[in-house]
Amino acid sequence: MYPSMIRAVGFDLDNTLYDQEQHVFPFFSAAATLLGEETGFEPMIIESTFRQAWRILGPSHPRLFNSVLCQHGIYDSYRVQTLVRMYHDYVGPLEVYPGVQSLLRRLRVRFPLFLITDGNAVMQRRKIERLGIGPLFQVVVFSAEHGGGLSKPNDAPFLNALRQLQRTPSDCVYVGDNPGCDVAGAARAGMRTVRVLTGPFRAESSTGTEADFTIDSVTNIEKILK
User: Fold this and answer.
1) Which of 39, 48, 66, 199 has the maximum number of C-beta atoms within 10 A of its C-beta?
2) Which structural domain range is residue 73 located in?
3) CATH value at residue 101
4) Is residue 1 part of a domain?
5) Three-state DSSP class for 175?
């Protein structure tokens, strides 16, 4: 358990508070339909390649679209740009993991809550709106707004949150699913860390920075904060 000195609790968004497959898999279907119309390829085959690449390369791989188009021999830079724009614009129905809404409502009575998320800021804002969790956070930081190269695990977004919260790093605990970005970044900023074993990184080994705690579900954070 953490001592009573914890004065703010922070969270990652994708695969920590909701299952990111809800966002990417419907997009893959829409993208495959578009590519099928343009190229004559069977959309189901392209969609399957998207899913495979996402699982193998990881959800944040910068050349995932390039890889899929190359595999089908339909790569060109314009198509990649079109898919990137389409991805940033596409946000379908989303739901948080079971119990997350009530968890956040309980925690915000005890602590200021903050959210730090990577990815296109417009897209991430839409996700937060669709999930209905924005009002539960005192501070929301979009790392993309810090400029190139300053996303997690860089400590810049974490330090931004600390400034807005007017808290010291040791006052805060941060919860995330990605050991290489969430755990390493929060630890670099001096925060306590909790790794949650959800999403595609759940079986991945730590990358040199061990989390202070590991939990199977974000809803188990209350056991640590007692």
Assistant:
1) 199
2) 21-89
3) 3.40.50.1000
4) no
5) strand
